[in-house]
Write a structure and sequence with these properties.
Bound molecules: adenosine-5'-triphosphate, magnesium ion
Order of helices and strands: HEEHHEEEHHEHEEHEEHEEH
CATH class of the largest domain: Alpha Beta
CATH topology of the largest domain: Heat Shock Protein 90
Radius of gyration: 29 Å
Shape: elongated
Helix content: 40-55%
Strand order of the largest sheet: 2-1-5-4-3
Number of strands: 12
Length: about 350
């Protein structure tokens, strides 16, 4: 039996739960009933025209509840659902060990979502403006050169020798190639709109790329000392391999460019576990980036290279974000640069399925 002070506490808790600005619902999975529903939850259900009864509530939350029940390591499931015009955020939890009760916290996040999409639209508009300025500049320059070369050629075609004419043709083709390169980069911008993530062994991936760089450096006759450091347990990730390959090629190409004037080039590729993610790090001892330019490197068209498009890192960031990955860059001018790519770890059951499929 509860002591007077416990009773008092229960009453206080009940009052707090009723008044709290968060919907709280408890489902009894044995009795197939809603065993608790506070005032805020009832108000949310009224707005989204849902009856706070098990029969009408359960079909809406079933997939999340099943996710919680089926995975013993899962203690919380969060999801956002759209009901008509409203967005509701749900957090599912399973208090106790008998899997009898499921608690659901509900929040109407429509206004927050709306603010987020307004902010997103503003950022997009700014980026679009930035991109158009870049396109004007990147296509405008070669077009001007082509126009100039053709004008000179037109005026002097009768006077120039075949060799002199050839020089102008070469220049025109070079400028056309620059535009073509740019257009190819744009194609990549949309290439992985819907990345297909799957379990992948990162150590395999790193070894594959190490071989690529070794082959490349021997063709180019440059010596690069490559070290690999894979922390045990930091191998299994969930990612789109092709998209990650493209990002890694961009990052490695940048590293090679940065080291081209080095006497001794060193590259370190490592992976380590960091909470729910694995960090893939690529460190070069190249020229580094001045502190004042660090915040520019992910902007489309920012480049310090004569033949660069400045789209490599912008593209990488976009592709990674679509796979719940992220990319960061730290650098010291004159010392080198580290690029860190954060990739979600694969879940235990996914790794098991992956291993079975490999056997
Ligand atoms: N590892 C690095 N070391 C030094 N500078 C770097 C490194 N990585 C990127 N940068 C800087 O960031 C800029 C932008 O890189 P990004 O990959 O986006 O474009 P880019 O390499 O210039 O062009 P592209 O990728 O089309 O060849 C580079 O021009 C360079 O100044
Ligand atoms: Mg690049």
């Amino acid at each position: 039996m509860a002591t007077p002070s416990q009773e008092c506490n229960e009453l206080i808790f009940q009052e707090i739960f009723q008044k709290i600005h968060l919907g709280i619902v408890v489902l009894d999975m044995q009795k197939h009933a809603v065993s608790y529903c506070n005032q805020q939850a009832a108000e949310i259900f009224e707005v989204i025209k849902l009856s706070p009864e098990f029969g009408s509530l359960y079909p809406i939350v079933e997939s999340s509840v099943q996710e919680l029940l089926n995975d013993p390591k899962r203690h919380k499931v969060k999801t956002i659902k759209k009901h008509g015009e409203r967005f509701i955020g749900y957090t599912f939890d399973m208090p106790g060990k008998d899997k009898r009760f499921i608690s659901i916290l509900l929040q109407d996040i429509t206004d927050q979502k709306r603010m987020d999409s307004i902010a997103e639209a503003v950022v997009t508009m700014n980026n679009v403006g930035y991109i158009f300025t870049g396109i004007r500049h990147e296509i405008g320059n070669p077009l001007n050169s082509i126009k100039m070369a053709l004008t000179v050629l037109q005026k002097n075609i009768d006077r120039y020798s075949p060799d002199e004419i050839e020089v102008y043709f070469v220049r025109v083709f070079e400028e056309i190639a620059r535009i073509e390169h740019l257009l190819k980069s744009f194609k990549n911008f949309n290439m992985y709109e819907k990345p297909q993530t799957a379990v992948m062994d990162l150590s395999d991936f790193i070894m594959h790329n190490t071989q690529l760089i070794t082959a490349y450096s021997s063709v180019k006759d440059t010596l690069i000392g490559i070290s690999v450091d894979i922390e045990p347990g930091s191998e299994m990730v969930k990612v789109d391999r092709r998209a990650l390959q493209q990002v890694t090629m961009n990052v490695l190409a940048n590293a090679m460019d940065a080291m081209q004037n080095n006497k001794e080039s060193r590259l370190l590729i490592s992976s380590r576990s960091h909470g729910p993610s694995i960090l893939l790090e690529i460190t070069d001892n190249g020229c580094g980036i001045p502190a004042a330019s660090l915040h520019d490197v992910f902007k489309p068209f920012y480049t310090t290279k004569e033949k660069g498009t400045g789209l490599g890192l912008a593209l990488s960031k976009k592709m990674l974000a679509q796979m719940n990955c992220s990319i960061d860059l730290s650098s010291t001018e004159g010392e080198g640069t580290t690029v860190t790519i954060s990739i979600p770890k694969a879940r235990a059951h996914e790794v098991e399925e992956f291993r079975l499929s490999q056997d």
